[in-house]
Design a protein that fits this description.
By secondary structure, the protein is of the alpha/beta class. Helices cover 32% and strands 25% of the residues. The model has no long low-confidence stretch (mean pLDDT 95). It binds 5'-O-[hydroxy(phenylacetyl)phosphoryl]adenosine. The site of 5'-O-[hydroxy(phenylacetyl)phosphoryl]adenosine has 21 residues, from helix 6, strand 7, strand 8 and strand 12.
């Protein structure tokens, strides 16, 4: 279902004209309101009017996570604090959080984009949206909340955690739409089964899952265990939060980028060169309408490609392929690049193991060593040691075969890998570099 017929189905020419107009206004605005951009654009000799066509964007400077950190906390805000009505932050794994702000209009824009996202999964008035994204500094909870309210659906502000209670409420309140990370959805499905509750006891029809990488295999697993359609939704705090791109029910292949608000580019992460449609690289976003915290060519570190072919759903928006990993999550094991999501894909296709895994990286001498811990399922658990050894070898073999990397697979007992209530931690890096 298309929430905003006008903007989500704009002919390409009209979309590009709109983007160019908004881009020019954005660059002029950041030049005069954000000292960081004024300096950066000044250094490259940018003058108002220099942006003649959309392609000229590729000549403008990037913004990186380090730039955000250097300007902590509010240095990149483009409006005075009197106009800021909301502040969010993302924790990151190291150092200071990155801080982002919203004006009243930004919050409205965000609600519109999340209304589009929820609508793409068929949400309408009368739906009961079970929102298990964390509420707080994380953008997931409030983002989905405002989108659901904008549609006029009834939102249950659950936040993450207390899984048994989540299930009780889902059942008793008759939740129809689930919002959570994919790993938490799987955790909920597992607890449901333990409690003897089947998908038929619930009214769930669709789930909008994002905030972490996940695989097609994981989608199949969630859809089967919860009896729903599972869609991938994407976003990041620095750009707006969730609501940057979302899959549609019709295709479930690639996420439509809300291009009237964000321009996506794919670059070669090493050279910074813009890559053509279809090529794999780092996603970069420019915000076109944000007031408090606009970003110019923000380097996401997320790996994807852009798909220009038209979708059957009627949206004309470009699609981005599901994120395969982050440049900073990529492991290089004896020269081979590996992303956790690739390991996930392999595990998902093997019978006898569960989709719960963790990757442990250590260093022996000068070599990086990867151990993959995978949970076996209850039925295999009772098998003789010999059978288990065979299963471990099979996983090792398939990983080597498909990814070209040798690793040690350790099968662990059911329910021993920590379950996630938000973003799952897939990699434990024990290397002391
Ligand atoms: O995770 C925003 C969000 C909330 C998106 C709820 C979707 C649903 P951050 O905490 O700033 O914001 O983390 C952003 O999470 O750069 C990606 O690496 C990752 N990410 C987000 N969505 C997806 C996805 C929120 N669908 C970072 N697939 C991003 C893969 C995702 N990775």
């Amino acid at each position: 279902m298309i929430w905003n017929d006008e903007y989500e189905t704009l002919p390409r020419e009209a979309m590009e004209a709109l983007q160019l107009k908004r881009l020019r206004a954005l660059v002029d605005r950041v030049c005069s309101t954000v000292p960081f951009y004024k300096r950066k654009l000044g250094e490259m000799g940018y003058k108002p009017g220099d942006l003649r066509k959309l392609d000229d964007l590729s000549r403008l400077p990037f913004t990186t996570k380090d730039d955000l950190r250097d300007n902590y906390p509010f240095g990149l805000f483009a409006v005075p604090m009197e106009r800021v009505v909301r502040i969010h932050a993302s924790s990151g794994t190291t150092g200071k959080p990155t801080v982002v702000g919203y004006t009243r209009r930004d919050v409205d824009t965000w609600a519109e984009l999340m209304a589009r996202t929820l609508s793409s999964g068929g949400t309408t008035r009368g739906d009961i949206v079970h929102n298990a994204y964390g509420y707080g500094l994380f953008t997931g909870g409030l983002g989905a909340h405002y989108g659901a309210e904008k549609i006029g659906a009834a939102v249950i502000p659950m936040s993450g955690g207390n899984t048994k209670r989540q299930i009780l409420i889902m059942k008793d309140f008759g939740s129809t739409v689930l919002c959570s990370t994919p790993s938490y959805a799987l955790n909920m499905a597992e607890v449901m089964a333990e409690e003897g509750i089947s998908p038929a006891d619930l009214k769930l029809k669709c789930g909008l899952f994002g905030a972490e990488p996940w695989s097609e295999g994981m989608r199949r697993e969630i859809e089967r265990k919860l009896g729903i359609d599972a869609l991938d939704i994407y976003g990041l705090s620095e750009v707006i939060g969730p609501g940057v791109a979302s899959e549609c029910l019709e295709m479930k292949q690639g996420l439509h980028v809300f291009e009237d608000h964000f321009i996506p580019e794919i670059i070669n992460p090493e050279t910074g060169q813009v890559l053509p449609y279809g090529e794999l690289g780092e996603l970069v976003f420019t915000t076109l309408t944000k007031e408090a915290f606009p970003v110019l060519r923000y380097r996401t570190r997320d790996i994807s490609r852009l798909i220009p072919t038209l979708c059957v759903c009627g949206r004309t928006l470009l699609r981005m392929e599901r994120i395969s990993g982050r440049t900073d999550d990529m492991l290089i094991i004896r020269g081979v690049n590996v992303f956790p999501s690739q390991i996930e894909s392999v595990i998902m296709d093997i019978e006898g193991v569960e989709p719960h895994y963790q990757m442990i990286v250590t260093r022996e001498g000068t070599l990086d060593v990867l151990e993959v811990q995978v949970e076996i399922n209850e039925s295999v658990f009772t098998d003789a040691i010999k059978g288990l050894e065979k299963l471990a070898k099979r996983v090792e073999h398939d990983i080597k075969d498909l990814l070209g990397v040798s690793c040690k697979v350790r099968l662990v007992e059911p329910k021993t890998i920590q379950r996630s209530e938000g973003k799952a931690k897939r990699v434990i890096d024990k290397r002391t570099l």
